[in-house]
């Protein structure tokens, strides 16, 4: 290894470790369901984004197996050469129907999708108004576009309006976009989309909502934009197939011309191999299940409310979440990690989230109850929280 790389890595890794900011990865020895196995131990899983339990759903497994049998394990090429199977276009039609838009385009991941979509439309002569708590993939997508990035305070609509006005009046930019997460995954709060859309109309802003954590969860499953009745007012509806949908992939849903443009100008669509047949078939099935019934969605909310109530009654700070995402805010980074480790030793897998993912001093254990958890599992988790909370002086 080059000496300069060796010293760079040592210095920075030691620094992270000494500050308690180094995340340890535990490989799972089971599927990512409500109970997972790690190091031979069965644990109640409160850390996955598999909100509806669809990652292990038998119906999805069956269509995935069938797709592998018929189409193989790989798509074999990028979408624009000959990697587009009929399965891909059927999935995209289904996404458009699910999102109440004219068309949709699928990408290999949600992260990829943000990198692809923002930079396909915005360039150095443009500006992007971005909520300060937007996801890393949005931040990277904005940077890639070379547009001027103007951050506004989290969900602060007066600040957004002021920044939009300044950007328009400066006369410096050809196009201006406003970007927000639909649901903010660290706190579980929901973007103020009606106000954002109103400001966008006033200043002719392009609207971009990344609903990775709202799809399957809000709007009876159809997402945050639908929840607010704004399906025809948001230009870019972004989603991922990796969370509530339970598989992998990302998408943009919007007007036909926008999707046509993305198909000829977004680089991961043009230069990276298409989603596999199994991913595509399973994702389409998941969306069909969501469109047929709200059963899983309803169970997710019931479980979210149950866990929140249990932790709140014990005296934990669970923040102001408006969704089933249940943060348990501990504060100091090392205490947060110790808390999470003790939960683990007692049988609950709930990961600590610390700086730089969340602001310094607001370390938290993030709980994601899913539709697949039983009340018994949640009761056991709450009892373990009580034990560890008392032991570490958090409650
Ligand atoms: N956007 C948001 C808001 C996310 O939370 C995530 C995943 N953490 C992504 C995009 C990336 O999605 P994926 O995991 O499908 O790449």
TrEMBL record:
**Boundaries of every Aminotransferase class I/classII large domain copy:** 42-382
Query: Which cofactor(s) are needed, names only?
Result: pyridoxal 5'-phosphate
Mention one GO molecular function: glycine C-acetyltransferase activity
Q: What is its EC number?
A: 2.3.1.29
For this protein, the record's InterPro entries field holds: Aminotrans_II_pyridoxalP_BS (IPR001917), Aminotransferase_I/II_large (IPR004839), AON_synthase_class-II (IPR050087), AONS_Archaea/Firmicutes (IPR010962), PyrdxlP-dep_Trfase (IPR015424), PyrdxlP-dep_Trfase_major (IPR015421), PyrdxlP-dep_Trfase_small (IPR015422)
User: Which controlled-vocabulary keywords does the entry list?
Assistant: Acyltransferase, Pyridoxal phosphate, Transferase
Note the coiled coil stretches, chain numbering: none
List the Pfam families hit by this protein, alphabetically.
Aminotran_1_2
Q: Which domain of life is it from?
A: Bacteria
CDD domains for this protein: KBL_like (cd06454)
Q: How would you classify this enzyme at the top EC level? A: transferase
Q: Which family does it belong to?
A: Belongs to the class-II pyridoxal-phosphate-dependent aminotransferase family.
Assembly, in brief, is: Homodimer.
Name of protein: Glycine C-acetyltransferase
Q: Which organism is it from?
A: Anaerobacillus alkaliphilus
